[in-house]
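Fold this sequence, please.
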Amino acid sequence: DQPMALFRHAARWVGCAIDPFVRLVAFHVGSAYDAAEAEANEGEAIPVPNDELTRNMTEKDRCLHRSMYQRTKSLVPSFDQVLEGLAESSGSPVKLLDLIDSIKKQCRSDDIGTLKSIGLDIIEYYGLKADEKLAWLEKKPAYKQKSTRGFNDNIFGRLLCPHKYSRDFEQDPDGFCRRILESDIIILASDLPAFLYDQDYNEDAINDGCYGDQSQSR
């Protein structure tokens, strides 16, 4: 009675099972590779599809999008057949992906909203130094405003600071946070694992070795 129910269910789990910021352009890239594979002779290497979007990507990004495509499709076993059927109806695949994308974004918003509501308690119970507890209690009511968090506050700044900058932060917390806000120091996505621990990490597989609990992953 509800033919889209499977896809709605899959969309709700894309952010948790794969990535909360998954880009559904991966389906375009994955479909292009599927077509190239279908045209290739058995045993031949699959060439880069003759598709402008795919060709303009780096090989690393093409591999990432293909992997994301396969993992997302696996959430609905009949996805292949549905996509093939929809391909015969102009605009239908786009409408399906828009539906999944919309639900996925809503679920991501719900998850982030939940973390925001309990995040302050997590920091208060587990993330404070002894000399930060008094200042935290004084400023906690104001922390409901987003503009008071992040690198706008030294307590949050310490928790966000990548390990490689820890010494700079401890020497001058106010100055370090100001330099972040003024973009004198740029923190990249590749710095993120260092938020969690002082260990080497694989830049080509940034999630390897990171804590895998659902709430942490989200």
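The chain has two domains: 5-107, 117-217. Residues 212-218 have pLDDT under 50 and may be disordered.
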